[in-house]
Amino acid sequence: CTLTEANQITLAIRYIFSKRTHTYISYNKIDNDAQYNQDFNGASMTARNGAANQFVGADPTIIAVGMIHNF
Prior knowledge:
Elements: E1 6-16, E2 21-32, E3 41-42, E4 45-46, E5 61-69
Antiparallel strand pairs: 1-2, 2-5, 3-4
């Protein structure tokens, strides 16, 4: 199988406000070859919403921003 490779990069930073609270930002990207369709999946969710062949070669990206406070 030719052109069936994928590379992924994740960059993230976290800022700690206190012992129990922090904020974060992350950048995640998958670079698929022309004949591959790796995707971000989690909790039975996906970035795709159509036929599987429609997304071959797509390069999905996620940017996440959040804050966590532990009670």
